Amino acid sequence: MAFSQEQFDMITALAKSYGATRLILFGSAHDSPDTARDIDLACDGVAGWKLYELAAQLEEEIHFPLDLVPLTPPNRFTMMIERRGRRLI
Known about the structure:
89 residues
């Protein structure tokens, strides 16, 4: 399924409302959006349980499976996301 700019705009707006300072799209929705089965996002600026609340809210709004991982603390995985992903915020 291809994702619309409207969906990404909604994702970005909702993430900002939770205090996100960085939001990076990665994985299949970034690399091959026409065949992606979920949306993978990495986020900074949303602490603790609020990150899980944001993930649940996003999934409800876009009606599509979503994985949301924190960018902090940095590690090899998050550094790869930052290099290869598409920054939304």
